[in-house]
Amino acid sequence: ETGVTQTPRHLVMGMTNKKSLKCEQHLGHNAMYWYKQSAKKPLELMFVYNFKEQTENNSVPSRFSPECPNSSHLFLHLHTLQPEDSALYLCASSQGSGQGRNSNQPQHFGDGTRLSIL
Amino acid sequence: QKEVEQNSGPLSVPEGAIASLNCTYSDRVSQSFFWYRQYSGKSPELIMSIYSNGDKEDGRFTAQLNKASQYVSLLIRDSQPSDSATYLCAVNLGNYGGSQGNLIFGKGTKLSVKP
User: Fold this and answer.
1) Second label for A74, Cα 20 to 30 Å away, from A14, A56, A68, B62?
2) CA of A13 to nearest chain B CA: how many angstroms apart?
3) Mean pLDDT in consecutive groups of 10 residues from the start of chain A, 118 residues
4) Nearest-CA neighbor of A21 among A57, A58, A65, A53?
5) Would you call B94 and A43 a contact, using CB atoms and an 8 Å cutoff?
6) A104 interfaces chain B, CB cutoff of 8 Å
7) HSE-up of B110 (CA within 13 Å, CB side)?
8) Do B45 and A109 touch (CB under 8 A)?
């Protein structure tokens, strides 16, 4: 079973729809991340959770709402999105949130959800 | 503004040649450095990590780090068509400079290995 699993792989939605992206990690990690990847731009960090607690919200609009019920699961709830939100949304996990002695811990990515907003 | 810079490419090399990918970063307190490979339509895959100045070799891959010059590179020996992908450089500041220990990514360099 792959380490980090994301569903769905593809999602097309209208601007008024509500949908959720799901991420599950089977690596025993305690930190999870949401990234946005748009064409010709670097990976943009959106949210960080460490031991289920949100430790970073990188000025993300409120139409994106994360949820982390436990260290293995992460959701991204979507509501009233804009066309510019069309992108690849990647989930990642790591052992520790990258601070201090965990700074050498790499992040492992899921295959992403390709989101298209009509 | 903490930045990681990479030449976007495409970098084209013939099969069997050495591919050299470069990355510079702006923050001197950066602690850890990672190279990810991303095939088109796929997720980033970790291929190398390096933390100390010098070279680190793993199979056909060699990562080189020079903290004084704020420069990290990835060499791919005996390049194969299957190495054609976008290579992302990522830098972790650890817990210095107010950083939360997050990774900062470059835009990536697209590598094309011609048969």
Assistant:
1) A14
2) 20
3) 88 92 94 91 89 81 94 95 94 77 78 94
4) A65
5) no
6) yes
7) 9
8) yes
β A10-13/A113-117 pair status: parallel
Q: Does B9 touch chain A (CB under 8 A)?
A: no
- Residues B54-70 have pLDDT tens digits of 999 999 999 999 999 99
State the CB neighbour count (10 A cutoff) for residue A61: 11
Closest CA to A33 of A86, A117, A90, A98: A90
What contacts B84, CB < 8 A, 6 or more positions away? B111, B112, B113
**Predicted local confidence at residue B97, as pLDDT:** 47
Helix/strand number for chain A, H first, E second = 0, 11
Instruction: For chain B, give the number of residues.
Output: 115
Average the pLDDT over B7-32 and give the result.
Answer: 91
